[in-house]
Amino acid sequence: MQKRLREWVFTSLAVAFLAIALAPTGTALAEDAKQDFGGIEPGKWVLGMRAGFAPLTQELHGGYSTDVGSLVNFQAMYSLNKWLLAGMIVEWERHAVDQERPLRDLGHQDTVSVLPTLELRPTNFGPVSPYVNMSFGVNVNSFGENTSTRISPSNTFAWRLGWGADYMLTKQFALNTEMAYKRNDGHVTLGSTRNDDWNASSFGFLFGVKLFF
């Protein structure tokens, strides 16, 4: 199952990068060849609202299985110059968790990630603005049990690496797609027993809109 998941993720990445590469027209490329380094105006605020899905990159815990989780992401960034932005990402993620043997529904894990972020926008191709961002922060993990066993995942250090593109419909409004890896590796307390093998690191696929002003 994990092998098929990795193959699916890599295939999705290849398709997304191909779509971004083919999006600009020859005319747009010719126009942007004249531009200097940088893909945004200085002093711009960027607000993003995205939703999507997030498979885990590995097994959560031995003998446990998870679904492809829901993902909601909010972003506020400020352009320091023509290519560098700084700001904050707040992200919510949920995964259902099952015990495999015997099979039973354990509940769901929620993760709220608070992520100070730097974003690099090297250029734009007509209406398409590619970017890459990196975040460091904290994952606040909690668990909603459907069992009498108390499950308490630890809060963890968060490291997130994302890349995506905006398609500018107007100067103030853009469609957005982004992919990101997020590290969420810690321990869990099952009843009164601590286990250090609890890894909810995930790969997120986001789709939404951004406002520029």
Query: Termini distance?
Result: 44 Å
User: In which range does the helix fraction lie?
Assistant: 10-25%
How confident overall, as mean pLDDT?
88
Radius of gyration: 19 Å
Determine the structural class based on helices, strands and strand pairing.
mainly beta
> How many helix segments?
2
Major pleated sheet: 8 strands, antiparallel, barrel
Q: In order across it, which strands form the biggest sheet?
A: 1-3-4-5-6-8-9-12
Shape: elongated
Number of strands: 12
What is the correct CATH architecture? Beta Barrel
CATH class: Mainly Beta
Strand content: over 45%
Low-confidence stretches: 1-6, 13-35
Q: List SSEs in N-to-C order.
A: HHEEEEEEEEEEEE
Total domain modules = 1
CATH topology: Porin
Describe what this molecule looks like in 3D:
It is a single chain. The strands form two sheets. This protein has an eight-stranded antiparallel β-barrel with strand order 1-3-4-5-6-8-9-12. It has a three-stranded antiparallel β-sheet with strand order 7-10-11, with no helix packed on it. Helix content is 13%, strand content 59%. The chain has one domain: Porin (Beta Barrel), CATH 2.40.160.20. The longest helix is centred in the first third of the chain and has 21 residues, at 2-22. With 213 residues, it is mainly beta. The model is unreliable at 1-6 and 13-35 (pLDDT under 50). The protein has helices at 2-22, 26-32; strands spanning 45-54, 64-66, 69-79, 84-99, 104-120, 128-145, 151-153, 156-168, 173-183, 185-190, 193-199, 202-212.
